[in-house]
């Protein structure tokens, strides 16, 4: 069998799959399109496993096959495998699992190549050029709550994973800047500040409080309610005075949101709900022409198979709603922005809304049936809970202010640094930037490490612990690796090109294998939109590194394997930094 040439980089699982694909075609020519099922394994038989034999057997048995059972199919798959420098040896176990032991030389060479060519050569290659990530998306004048914090953190990570994969990402802040609530708010503010247009941000102050007060007025005072409703009509009709007030309110909120984004180092481009207003009538008309829109109790709706409530696209008063805007936004993203993957990050409570919008888009033929691209995905997440197991709130039961949360995380990290004596050693600036990195990193990591669908409990003590699966532990671990390299006094740039990385000892090989699995892990995280997969990987990487580093047989500085082991340290630091980068966490280099 001819050798299959493979580039010495990237995704091990994908490269093995290529080899097994060749073998499967030869082994069972009549089942030409079987997909290789390759999984990493930790058993004593190998590093990876091909699990096709059993499934194939069930397809071919009794149809005149020469094989006498799954183990024989496995044996043939093994024998038909093209020769490759990736594989050291193969064996068949149990009911036909083909186990692969990777070649140590190839592993070492691949890692060194990554060091030379950069970690970007290990990036996933999703089948799309442009994606929209719709995230954060708070509502003007309402509170930006912990749910929006989750959306901001998760959405930023997803955007980063796609950007790393060379996808052009349109980071969209779908701000709630339109709707009937503006009528009551503007009317209330006009009453309070007769010269509203001259009022400064500080005079208007806390928009949320005015929003609440105006809502109360709306519910209790029919005359006010009447005026508020007229205000909506004026605003939507383009009345100058109302438009200006609206724009001013949006601007004040924007400044508040921006403070949070700046702290978190997240950038987004605002295209709020109002941006899509001009597109709604045309989109609804198009859907109507296609025969998708029906009358129901005075409203115009789209019925969706399998869901018993219809999607209302025009309310009975003729107005548009959240769903109308989302349909227009989806249309715009597909047609004007040419996005092939549109990802929405909100709490799971909105799952049905998106499910309906996406199904309507499929009915309209905007999106293909099934799971093909162009694709729309809803990334749902659970609640953030307080210590009492209820929705996270501060003592006075007001919603938690995000900025306060971030302040506290930072202050606690700073206190921990001072306690470690860094106050005397470091400059004020070093303390500040490290406290920023650790504090904000801790908040992000505590969120990202959970499967996003599960609720999690917000706990400062836990997230700022320097032991266990926390950002603090991981950031310190990275800083320690950097300090090993510094203490060696060697120039890694030179070692990368002139030295040789080898994987002799078991602990070195285990570390090497884990490093090599970075590419497939990030690909999985990216395909399934699951940041926690990167967190799990990062945590186990630092555990495996620590096993290697604390083994006296793997001494780094001063040993005869110093060059190779320093390169392993460097590779670990590079991969850890990339993980931090994907998670939106700033690494630290000393501790
Ligand atoms: N503003 C909404 C909220 O706070 C989230 C918007 C999500 N994006 C969208 N295209 N609907 O719940």
From TrEMBL:
It comes from the Eukaryota. One of its GO terms (molecular function) is ATP binding. It catalyses: tRNA(Arg) + L-arginine + ATP = L-arginyl-tRNA(Arg) + AMP + diphosphate. Its EC number is 6.1.1.19. The keyword Transferase does not apply. Keywords: Acetylation, Aminoacyl-tRNA synthetase, ATP-binding, Ligase, Nucleotide-binding, Protein biosynthesis. SUPFAM superfamilies: Anticodon-binding domain of a subclass of class I aminoacyl-tRNA synthetases, Arginyl-tRNA synthetase (ArgRS), N-terminal 'additional' domain, Nucleotidylyl transferase. The keyword Zinc does not apply. GO terms for biological process: arginyl-tRNA aminoacylation; post-embryonic development; reproductive structure development. One of its GO terms (cellular component) is cytoplasm. InterPro entries: aa-tRNA-synth_I_CS, Arg-tRNA-ligase, Arg-tRNA-synth_N, Arg-tRNA-synth_N_sf, ArgRS_core, DALR_anticod-bd, Rossmann-like_a/b/a_fold, tRNAsynth_Ia_anticodon-bd. CDD domains: Anticodon_Ia_Arg, ArgRS_core. Residues 14-102 form the Arginyl tRNA synthetase N-terminal domain. Residues 474-591 form the DALR anticodon binding domain. It holds the Pfam family Arg_tRNA_synt_N. HAMAP family: Arg_tRNA_synth. Belongs to the class-I aminoacyl-tRNA synthetase family. Forms part of a macromolecular complex that catalyzes the attachment of specific amino acids to cognate tRNAs during protein synthesis. This is arginine--tRNA ligase. It comes from Gossypium raimondii (Peruvian cotton).
């Amino acid at each position: 069998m001819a050798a299959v040439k493979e580039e010495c980089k990237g995704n091990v699982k994908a490269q093995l799959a290529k080899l097994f694909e060749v073998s499967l075609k030869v082994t069972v020519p009549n089942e030409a399109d079987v997909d290789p099922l390759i999984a990493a394994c930790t058993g004593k038989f190998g590093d990876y496993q091909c699990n096709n034999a059993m499934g194939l057997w069930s397809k071919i048995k009794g149809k005149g096959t020469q094989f006498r059972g799954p183990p024989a199919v496995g044996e043939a798959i093994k024998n038909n495998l093209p020769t490759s420098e990736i594989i050291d040896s193969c064996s068949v176990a149990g009911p036909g699992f083909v186990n692969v032991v990777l070649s140590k030389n190839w592993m070492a060479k691949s890692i060194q190549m990554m060091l030379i060519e950069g970690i970007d050569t290990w990036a996933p290659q999703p089948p799309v050029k442009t994606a929209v990530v719709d995230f954060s998306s708070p509502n003007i004048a309402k509170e930006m709550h912990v749910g929006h914090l989750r959306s901001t953190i998760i959405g930023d990570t997803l955007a980063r994973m796609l950007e790393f994969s060379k996808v052009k990402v349109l980071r969209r802040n779908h701000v709630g800047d339109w709707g009937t609530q503006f009528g009551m708010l503007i009317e209330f503010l006009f009453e309070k500040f007769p010269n509203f247009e001259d009022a400064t941000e500080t005079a208007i102050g806390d928009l949320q409080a005015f929003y609440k007060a105006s809502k109360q007025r709306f519910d209790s005072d029919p005359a006010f309610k009447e005026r508020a409703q007229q205000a909506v009509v004026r605003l939507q009709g383009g009345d100058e005075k109302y438009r200006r007030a609206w724009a001013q309110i949006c601007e004040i909120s924007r400044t508040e949101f921006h403070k949070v984004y700046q702290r978190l180092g997240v950038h987004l481009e605002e295209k709020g709900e109002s941006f899509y207003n001009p597109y709604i009538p045309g989109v609804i008309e198009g859907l109507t022409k296609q025969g998708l829109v029906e009358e129901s109790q005075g409203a115009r709706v789209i019925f969706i198979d399998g869901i018993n409530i219809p999607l209302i696209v025009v309310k009975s008063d003729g107005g548009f709603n959240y769903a109308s805007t989302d349909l227009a936004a989806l249309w715009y993203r597909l047609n004007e922005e040419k996005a092939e993957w549109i990802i929405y990050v909100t709490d799971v409570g909105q799952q049905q809304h998106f499910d309906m919008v996406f199904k309507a888009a499929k009915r309209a033929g905007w999106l293909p049936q099934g799971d093909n691209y162009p694709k729309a995905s809803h990334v749902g997440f659970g609640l953030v809970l307080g210590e009492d197991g209820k929705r996270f709130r501060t003592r006075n039961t007001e919603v938690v202010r995000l900025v306060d949360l971030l302040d506290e995380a930072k202050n606690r990290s700073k206190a921990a640094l001072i306690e470690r004596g860094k106050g005397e050693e470091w400059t004020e600036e070093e303390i500040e930037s490290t406290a920023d990195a650790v504090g904000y990193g801790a908040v992000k990591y505590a969120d990202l490490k959970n499967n996003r669908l599960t609720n999690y409990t917000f706990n400062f003590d836990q997230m700022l612990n320097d032991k266990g699966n926390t950002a603090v532990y991981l950031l310190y671990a990275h800083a320690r690796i950097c300090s090993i390299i510094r203490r060696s006094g060697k120039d890694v740039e030179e070692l990368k090109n002139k030295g040789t990385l080898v994987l002799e000892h078991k602990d070195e090989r285990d570390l090497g294998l884990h490093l090599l699995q970075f590419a497939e892990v990030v690909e999985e995280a990216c395909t399934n939109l699951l940041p926690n997969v990167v967190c799990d990987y990062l945590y186990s990487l630092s555990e495996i590194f620590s096993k290697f580093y604390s083994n006296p047989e793997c001494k780094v500085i001063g040993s005869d394997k110093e060059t190779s082991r320093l390169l392993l340290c460097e590779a670990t630091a590079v991969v850890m930094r990339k993980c931090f980068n994907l998670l939106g966490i700033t690494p630290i280099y000393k501790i």
